[in-house]
Amino acid sequence: MTHATLDSDEQIVVTRPRFGRFFLPGPTEVRAEVLAAQLRPMIGHRGAPMEALIAGMQPALRAVFRTARPVYIASSSATGLMEAAVRNGVRRRVLSLVNGAFSERFYQIAQACGFEADALRVPLGDAHTPELVAGALRGKAYDAVTVVHSETATGVLNPIADLARVVHDAGDVVILVDSVTGIAGAPVETDAWALDFVLTGSQKALALPPGLALGVAQEPVLARAREAKGRGIYFDLVEFDKYLSKHQTPNTPALSLFYALQVQLERIAAEGIEGRWARHASMAERCWEWADDMTQRGVPLGVLAPPGFRSPTVTCFTLPPGTTGPAVTAALAARGFTIGAGYGELKDATIRIGHMGDHTVAELDALLAQLAEVLS
Ligand SMILES: *Cc1c(COP(=O)(O)O)cnc(C)c1O
Prior knowledge:
Layout: E1 3-6, E2 12-15, E3 22-23, H1 32-36, H2 48-65, E4 72-74, H3 78-89, E5 93-98, H4 101-112, E6 116-121, H5 130-139, E7 144-148, E8 150-151, E9 156-157, H6 160-169, E10 174-178, E11 197-201, E12 213-217, H7 219-227, H8 237-244, H9 255-271, H10 273-296, E13 302-303, E14 314-318, H11 325-334, E15 338-341, E16 350-354, H12 361-375
Parallel strand pairs: 3-15, 5-6, 5-7, 7-10, 10-11
Antiparallel strand pairs: 1-2, 4-12, 8-9, 11-12, 13-14, 14-16, 15-16
Helix pairs in contact: 2-9, 3-7, 5-6, 10-12
The site of pyridoxal-5'-phosphate has 12 residues, from helix 3.
């Protein structure tokens, strides 16, 4: 049981379960010291202490995104910056690469914001190839492409560096990247790959509580934003940029989450971003080996995503006949472990493990041992 009490000095005393039982593909499990950072007192958001907090986090954030650009922090869920990407980055017509529920959402946002949008669909479980995207861009004039890096619904990793190359080969076209389950878990080179806009949310591989979205815009997107009539107020990137240059945010930031971010960035810097990528790769490989072992032992388990296109942060397993996602997640819950059922159309046929954020292979092994018993 988790509970919090106050002692006589108004100190908060919290009892919570041991780390390593909660493997949803978002929100992910948050370390106690990161949660505790949120207990710091309030400060005003137009004063020097807040400016120092914001300025102080920029170097570590740039290291996470591998960029020399400023990293914007929005007090919203990740979907907010998906909308920002579209409102600021699209001129007229957008090509949306769709291979699961989250990339479908990007397409729906483009339509809802009033742009002409076409979906380039591949079957659930597949990635988009550069050839396919290059062909679509030759067939019709688009000025922007939306894409999800790590499709959390299927565990598929899109080849973002290659896709960015063909998008830029098509001329004045920008690539708008949802890397919500990529950034801080999968390699992302924002500047080297020339990602025009890339975003994430706090509650995935950054292993923070939900409520913040983080993103980087290259100059071509900011230039478009300055011209965009319908960019609105809350997700106006021109405003984000203007305020961040003064180490501020346009509106009241979710201060408690900023405190948590500050502590978590110190932890990420101590591990090193490449070390973090390597740890995620090891957890994913462990899942793939385990599925093969289980299959050999007579429990046919598959990994939905094909080799070479598997996310290091989330694995979507196909289940043996007669077993359903909700039944498996319920049996695991009875043992004190949380994983995700399938998402959307894949709800019954699959389960998903979010091995992202601060989990380790040892904790994952403990989960897989339980899951093996549930499935056998
Ligand atoms: C979780 C997720 C989102 C949505 O994030 P919210 O914080 O719920 O808005 C978008 N894209 C991907 C790939 C995700 O995994």
